[in-house]
């Protein structure tokens, strides 16, 4: 190193010298001791290994990004209520394990990505900080109530919920059913890389979420990378989206439908599908839920005895059947007699597609027709995850608990969970 | 209709007059009374509604396609053993239900698609006719033994297995493990539309399968439509393929890898990935299998009590975990104590990705590290279905039944079930 550092501090505008040239940016707090984290003029955060930096010169002291200032309501910009619930977007590198750990407070996130404050005043709410695999229906209901409060607050323009990715699509489904027809946008977002990493997808996802929260798309939507490039985000329907890759930034894919829209970091939006527009009314949160529902996946050779376990412990199950909706219908593991028995004893059994993509059709093969005869109900092109959440929500309501009422409600298109116009061309996986 | 039909019969070359022009082709047996089925000069079978046909003229009596002749071995062409096991490719429309039913004998299929005989002599074997959801490990073993016999017959160039689509990927996995390193190609194929329909995908899938069976790709592969167009087929690795759509013809997709090759109807092949080449040795079929294995999918809020059911009834389970490999690790439904208990009592628990695409990584989040601590083994980028089949096959062998030996074998890349070089760019879903 040619010169000693002039004690550069987070917030300083600096110029660093690397082997191949120089970079200018604002120094951010880095949680990795070996890495300098810089916010470039483009808004991107980039990490540099300290050993690769031969010089660092402070061009301007602090103030460029006011990292130490509290985020205050300007009173001049539209208000977004921002609900942090945990997940990778609220996490940072943990040098001791090489893994990640939670940010200690919400401001840490916004210090790394202050761009959102140029668009809106942000009111931060943190009901809890959880990995999404640790959430359950009580957490979904809690988020729904909090979102409902914001939606019915006339000073709020829209709501963003940041969330872990693993089961974000369960929460987006739950909010879709619990919030009903919306008056304002409710946007769920995430990141696949912790927010303090230079390669994090937080920046684009956050800014695009803000644009959607301020738009007229009054739907429960999931906003995140459309591709592995940092170019634009998809706006995806809450009931027809699924995490399809363990680690890619564009992990959330629309299933059996097209995206609602595409949105760019500069606010440009391209509408792809019809959506519910912003309105003036108030909404009513309906977060009743019956936890006695289960999801299971059928596989060849599986013994139907497992249905006894479900009959004893649950009110209803969602079964991922094969193809157009099949299970074993002959031989020693024939499911038909056991299905007839457990359904007769009161268990609701709903069929969903194990392929994820496409629509069930019980009329093509005799297996499907026989399953209908014993009382299995086919849920068309619904996602298995959405089917489970819907069944829990429906059974949470006394008025829909009879077998006829349950079936009718389960087959009603409550929140876009069925795509009645699904065509072959909708396969954009 | 201008003239009465001159009694056209299947096999006759005919010219039909439609509102917009004429078509010439060979009349095929049609199982739908209202439809005339014609094989055009291009090889495509097309169905015409009888009410749209104003005239039909017999140009040449029979003989063009010898539909009534037995398919005989010419002795001059390479021999392919063709094993029919059932499924849509062996089915026809059933006018009484509007669904489909099995062809009554194998020749019905080849009468509709005789093109394969131009390439090879076909020896047909029909061990059973089953929908794939009704198959179990005994059927997989039976097919494996039959295929093994053919592979060790020096007069045979390659083997084709036609099969139902629903669980074709289970059978392709099972054959991959049971047959080991191959000396000749073993091709599994299918159709999504019954073979007597004009829009059937049987024609291209059959002819491409024959080209692959005669090629040097000595792998268990699945050959079928690469897109919804009738242009070319994918050759897909048996352990890394999954049915991803209920009804599209290109339903089988490579997961976490690229296709082995592309193949066109005229025999052109484009190699995409490395593969095992045709060799001279004999193979040994290893079809041992332990049925006491199960596949389950984890969902948020799920009670870990279900693990007791599996512990009582199974030797090992494959759990579709969320994200990089997570289940509930806190609160009243914490899975960690129960996992520790059932693993301590001898149940093997293997983690696979619920996202299907991507690779598990237990080191990023504390949930993954804790699961490893209680004895859960992470199966990288394996497909859940392949994981189940592999576990049953491994536990079928006395020498791999101890917990250390099982784990070692489960983590060994036996038949391309892991892609060690998996990159982000391999997402061709």
Explain what the structure shows.
2 copies of one chain form a homodimer. Chain A is α/β, with parallel strands linked by helices and 429 residues long. The first copy, chain A, folds into 3 domains: 13-60, Roll (SH3 type barrels), CATH 2.30.30; 79-271, L-asparaginase, N-terminal domain (Rossmann fold); 293-411, Rossmann fold (3-Layer(aba) Sandwich), CATH 3.40.50. Helix content of chain A is 21%, strand content 24%. Chain A contains 9 helices and 21 strands. Chain A has helices at residues 106-112, 137-151, 168-179, 202-213, 306-313, 336-344, 366-373, 384-395, 403-411, and strands at 13-18, 21-28, 35-40, 45-49, 55-60, 79-84, 91-93, 100-102, 121-125, 156-162, 186-189, 220-225, 232-237, 241-243, 252-254, 261-264, 269-271, 293-297, 316-321, 348-353, 377-378. The first copy, chain A, has an 8-stranded mixed β-sheet with strand order 9-6-10-11-12-13-16-17, sandwiched between helices. Chain A has a 5-stranded antiparallel β-sheet with strand order 4-3-2-1-5, with no helix packed on it. A 4-stranded parallel β-sheet of chain A has the order 18-19-20-21, with helices on both faces. The first copy, chain A, is elongated and about 75 Å long. At the A-B interface, strand 18, helix 5, helix 7 and helix 8 of A face strand 18, helix 5, helix 7 and helix 8 of B.
């Amino acid at each position: 190193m040619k010169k000693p550092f002039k004690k550069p501090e987070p917030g300083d505008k600096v110029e660093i010298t690397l082997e191949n040239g120089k970079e200018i940016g604002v120094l951010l707090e880095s949680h990795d001791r070996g890495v300098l984290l810089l916010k470039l003029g483009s808004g991107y955060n980039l990490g540099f290994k300290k050993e690769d930096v031969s010089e660092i010169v402070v061009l301007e002291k602090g103030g460029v990004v006011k990292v130490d200032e509290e985020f205050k309501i300007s009173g001049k910009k539209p208000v977004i209520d921002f609900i942090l619930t945990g997940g990778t977007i609220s996490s940072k590198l943990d040098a001791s394990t090489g893994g990640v750990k939670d940010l200690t407070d919400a401001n840490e996130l916004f210090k790394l990505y202050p761009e959102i404050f140029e668009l809106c005043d942000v009111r931060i709410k943190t009901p809890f900080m959880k990995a999404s695999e640790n959430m359950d229906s009580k957490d979904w209901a809690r988020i729904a109530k909090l979102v409902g409060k914001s939606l019915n607050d006339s000073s709020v323009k829209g709501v963003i919920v940041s969330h872990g990715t693993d089961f974000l699509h369960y929460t987006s489904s739950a909010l879709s059913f619990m919030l009903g027809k919306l008056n304002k946008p409710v946007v769920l977002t995430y990141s696949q890389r912790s927010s303090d990493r230079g390669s994090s997808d937080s920046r684009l996802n956050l800014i695009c979420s803000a644009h959607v929260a301020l738009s007229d798309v009054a739907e429960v939507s999931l906003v995140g990378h459309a591709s592995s490039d940092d170019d634009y985000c998809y706006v995806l329907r809450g009931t027809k989206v699924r995490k399809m890759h363990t680690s890619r930034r564009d992990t959330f894919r629309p299933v059996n439908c097209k995206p609602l829209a595409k949105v760019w970091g500069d606010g440009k939006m391209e509408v792809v599908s019809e959506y519910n527009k912003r309105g003036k009314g108030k909404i009513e949160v309906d977060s009743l839920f019956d936890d006695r529902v289960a999801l299971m996946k059928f596989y060849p050779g599986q013994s139907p005895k497992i249905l006894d376990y479900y009959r004893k412990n649950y009110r209803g199950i969602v079964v991922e059947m094969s193809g157009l909706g099949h299970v074993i219908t002959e031989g020693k593991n024939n499911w038909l007699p056991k299905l007839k028995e457990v359904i007769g004893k009161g268990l609701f059994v709903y069929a969903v597609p194990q392929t994820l993509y496409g629509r069930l059709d019980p009329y093509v093969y005799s297996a499907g027709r026989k399953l209908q005869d014993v009382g299995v109900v086919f849920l068309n092109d619904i996602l298995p995850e959405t089917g489970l959440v819907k069944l829990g929500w429906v059974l949470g309501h006394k008025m829909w608990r009879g077998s006829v009422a349950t079936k009718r409600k389960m087959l009603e298109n409550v929140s876009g969970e069925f795509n009645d116009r699904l065509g072959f061309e909708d396969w954009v996986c």
